[in-house]
Amino acid sequence: MIEQPSRPALFVQDGPVLSRGDLAASVRAAVIDLRRQGVERTDRLALFMRPDPLAVISLLAGMAVAAVAPLSPTVPYD
């Protein structure tokens, strides 16, 4: 159960505010999708993503299912 589901959870510059309830529902849906695709606790995921709301949802869902390495295209990797 999410406490105060209508409270803001994620602010998007020049965009909508995602509530705690909306964020939790989006993460749950992504977790279900990852599990349907066969991702398990012992798997490792590399998420290559730009910093945006979808990245937050993807990261939280990935961490709920497996080990995650978030990668950003804006950071130089040598």
Question: What's the quick description here?
Answer:
With 78 residues, the protein is an alpha+beta fold. The protein is built from two helices and four strands. The termini are far apart.
- Based on DSSP secondary structure assignment, what is the total number of beta strands? 4
Order of helices and strands: EEHEHE
Structural class computed from helices and strand pairing:
alpha+beta
Q: Over all CA atoms, what is the radius of gyration?
A: 14 Å
Beta-strand percentage?
15-25%
What about the largest sheet? 2 strands, antiparallel
Q: Which residue ranges are poorly predicted, with pLDDT under 50 across at least 5 consecutive positions?
A: none
What's the shape?
flat
Report how far apart the termini are.
Answer: 43 Å
Give the count of helical stretches.
Answer: 2
Mean of pLDDT = 90
Structure description:
Helix content is 38%, strand content 22%. It has 78 residues and is an alpha+beta fold. The protein has a two-stranded antiparallel sheet. Strand 3 (44-48), helix 2 (53-65) and strand 4 (67-71) form a beta-alpha-beta unit. The relative contact order is 0.18. The model has no long low-confidence stretch (mean pLDDT 90).
